[in-house]
Design a protein that fits this description.
Length: 177
């Protein structure tokens, strides 16, 4: 989760389950070993975090964007994405809608596993606050039946970003007929 602002009289630290994010990526231009892959991205955040602890806004967010994967030989890819997210406003607060930019590289270690490194920059939901910036290192492992385990460690680069964090989860791909 993300703490929206400091507690009265100083900062605070909270932990707990964050919001659930569902994201779909649809490739409308399938590339080759040399041509890029281009996709549309659709995102929905469901407010499942404990808003009384400041771990979420208690509101639904949604958005879309575009992604690109540029192959660099057999095992390497350059990856970039841009998203625009419409933020839900909790009572008494006016969050601004934000853009999110990510750029990085992926190394496919094998047919089933890959490593990736990314730089991300997100606008703050609060007008006047500086952008959030971080770097991350991730590992993905393909499992049976179209399931992929994804894990990431990240380090905040800006005063408004989290100091550090970890993320783990699963993605599911439909089978092509």
């Amino acid at each position: 989760g993300e703490v929206i602002g400091p507690a009265p009289g100083g900062s605070t630290s909270e932990s707990g389950l964050g919001d659930v994010i569902a994201q779909e990526e649809v490739f409308f231009l399938e590339g080759t070993a040399r041509r890029p892959w281009v996709s549309g991205i659709f995102r929905l955040k469901l407010p499942t975090a404990d808003e009384s602890k400041g771990l979420g806004s208690g509101e639904t967010d949604y958005g879309g964007g575009v992604g690109i994967i540029q192959p660099l030989g057999h095992a390497w890819n350059l990856i970039g994405a841009w998203q625009y997210i419409v933020r839900g406003d909790p009572p008494g607060t006016d969050f601004r809608d934000t853009s999110w930019l990510s750029a990085g590289a992926q190394w496919r270690q094998s047919e089933r596993s890959s490593w990736n490194a990314f730089y991300e920059r997100r606008q703050s939901v609060i007008e006047g606050n500086s952008d959030l910036a971080d770097v991350s290192l991730g590992y993905d492992r393909a499992l049976p039946r179209g399931v992929t385990f994804r894990s990431t460690v990240f380090l905040g680069l800006s005063d408004t970003a989290e100091d550090f964090g970890i993320s783990a989860g699963f993605s599911f791909a439909g089978r092509k007929r």
